[in-house]
Structures are given as C-alpha cells and as structure tokens.
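hey so i finally got around to running the thing on that chain from the lab meeting. sorry it took forever, my laptop kept dying and i had to restart like 3 times. anyway pasting the input first so we r on the same page abt which one it is
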Amino acid sequence: MGAASRRFANAALVLESELDPPALLAALKRTEREFGRRRGQRWGDRVLDLDIVLWSGGAWRTKALTIPHKAFAQRRFVLDPACIIAPDWRTPLHGLTLAHTQARLTRPRPLPS
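ok and heres what got predicted. didnt touch it at all, straight out
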C-alpha cells in the first residue's frame, strides 16, 4: 500500500500451529524484528511484513487483532498468492472461496452509460 521506493515480493503460506492468534501474532512480530524491521512510517518500506489474514478457527476479534484481516478482500497482493495455495478456502465473513473473492475483485466492470 502506498508508494514503495524499492521492489518487493508478496507471498502466502498455510501454517499449522498450536498457538492461538495473539500468540502467533507476537511470534510474527518477533520474526519481523529479527529481520531488522523497525517501527516507522505507516505504509513505508519494510524489510518484512507478516500478517495473519485468515485463520482456520473462523473469525477472531480483539482490540489488537482482527481476523480475517479487514481489507484482505480488496487487496490483489493478498488474494493472488493466497489463491495459488488455497483457492477453495472459505472465508468466515461471507462463505465465499478465496478464488471467488479474487474473481469478484478482478472481474471487468461495465462502463457507465
């Protein structure tokens, strides 16, 4: 999001863990710090940015963490790699698969008349 001053790559993974979402998020943030990420400008370039987008337990909502990620369905850079590894994953918000969610985002729209 925002302007990037360097090239970057987006990826997705399915991770099996015994950690609950808050503990997993803490582990992800620790990993970001180990790779050199420092707090700074929002939407600024980062060495590593790890997020929990979806969770097999459905929805999770606390003050610090919301799953599914609030904007995942509007972000091709999230949906494109996720659809490669888990196209049939159903989202808890609307029950659509990731492939269907991606198709809704990327389908051509008719021009206004």
